[in-house]
Design goal:
The complex is a heterodimer. Helices cover 19% and strands 29% of the residues of chain A. Chain A is of the alpha/beta class. Chain A has one domain: Glutaconate Coenzyme A-transferase (3-Layer(aba) Sandwich), CATH 3.40.1080.10. Chain A starts with a helix and ends with a strand. In chain A, 47% of the residues are buried. By secondary structure, chain B is an alpha/beta fold. Chain B has a single domain, classed as Glutaconate Coenzyme A-transferase (3-Layer(aba) Sandwich), CATH 3.40.1080. In chain B, helix 2 links the parallel strand 2 and strand 3. In chain B, helix 2 packs parallel to helix 3. Chain B starts with a strand and ends in a 6-residue tail after the last strand. In chain B, 53% of the residues are buried. Classes of the chains: A alpha/beta, B alpha/beta. Chains A and B meet through helix 3 and helix 4 of A and helix 5 of B.
Amino acid sequence: MFDKDEVQEIIAKRVAKEFHNGDVVTLGIGLPTKAVKYLPEGVKILINSENGVLGVGNYQTAENQDDRITNAGGVGVTINEGGCFMDSLNVFGLMRGGHIDVTVLGALQADSQGNLANWCIPGKFTPGMGGAMDLVAGTKKLIVAMEHTAKGMPKIMNHCTLPLTAAGKVNMIITEKGVFEIVNQQLFLTQISPISSLDDIRATTEADFIVALKN
Amino acid sequence: MVKIITPQEAVSLFCSGQTVMIGGFLNCGCPQAVIDELLKTDINNLTLIANDTAVPEKSRGQLVCAHKIKKAVVSHIGTNPETVRQMNAGEIEIDLQPQGSLAERIRAGGAGLGGILTPTGLGTSAQDGKQIINVDGKDYILETPLKADIALVYATYGDKYGNLAFYGSTKNFNALMPPAAKTVIAEIDELIEPAINPNNVSVAGIYVDYLIVRGNKNV
């Protein structure tokens, strides 16, 4: 068995393979951000942060602290050469207007229609949608990166039961057990992780899916 | 010319029941000096328009904790457990809006637009109660303008003409709120003499009424 951190690293490693050199990428807070550590050799991406930083660099150290430069999680970061700062209008224009190549978000649930739920569990947890709805409205490719189940319950559904963040926008779901692609509102299992099996995935996925493994 | 005042004097511009836009993204780029003074008053029942309610011990989050906010129009409250608690207890009204739509609504309020059309939130509860308009075969949500009595913003640099400029990621909502409010108070780190280079101005001075020179870089 793997602990939560190990599971997240497995997912992050797989997510990183989806980036191509020169991609403009937006990463959700938490697990999606970890993918940066595993960028394939020779692949450079430009990271956008919804608080208005295009070209996010490293985390700040004790030597270069400046609370006037943060990422969308409020954590101090640096900006890379060639980057720029924007106000909230411009950065959301960038996201909504179709200028982001790949967006990676965590999710509470995703479904075979390409729906995503990640901002609210009614009566229990309502952090708000923040910038997620705008992000998914315009991105060229939307990847959901999440653990396959939550407390043993499936998160890949036939129909999301939680309030939606986006309707019909998800292109790919990456979990520690495998990779799914959504085409024309149909869910295809395209990769099985070395730590899982088809039987395991069938047992822990609510959604119906077609097996169409790719190398 | 803009009037340079103290944080204490700025507080006299506020009244209970007003609609107030406050800049900042979480803890980055917050007009903290005026907020610190507001916390000492009995001003309350404010409607807050902002990106988020920050954290309990900082900026907009402190105003929530002090029960000064009756209603908050924001995109995110998850970093402030007290906002969530007050919402669940019915002590505060929370109107959650997608962040980009919120920014555009503020722009519309200041730019003389009757609203903006956005695909953001289609097929979700964010479209509830809003008009859907079809343009060239595509649906959009009509998002209406937002205005305020006061905009309280942070800027890194200001000048005596009211021009504002920003360092780092502090532009966020600070740079777009001034046109949308009747009275604009900008809290700055540094006063530039005689004036900010016009090439570097992000907010035109004509929008800004009052300037507070805070004189530090602790934002």
